[in-house]
Design goal:
With 81 residues, the protein is mainly alpha-helical. It has one domain. It contains two helices and no strands. Helix 1 packs antiparallel against helix 2.
Length: 81
Amino acid sequence: MVKWMKYGGRIAIGLDFIDTTGQVIDACNYGQSGQCEKVAIKEYSKFAGRTGGGMAGGYYGGIAAGAACFALGAATGGFSA
């Protein structure tokens, strides 16, 4: 299951990149002159922020989940109800 979730995450990042590139291409082809570079910087910066934020959130979320599991396991003495 986790293996498929990793593949799904990679596919989602790829689709997001394709969408971002499409927005930049539209701005460059159909926008006003001078807008192409501004839109490219803005859109790719947003993409990097979304991707990096998601990676950091997943990393720290995993740490927090591990700590919560440890705390709950210690509180119950390792026994489940």
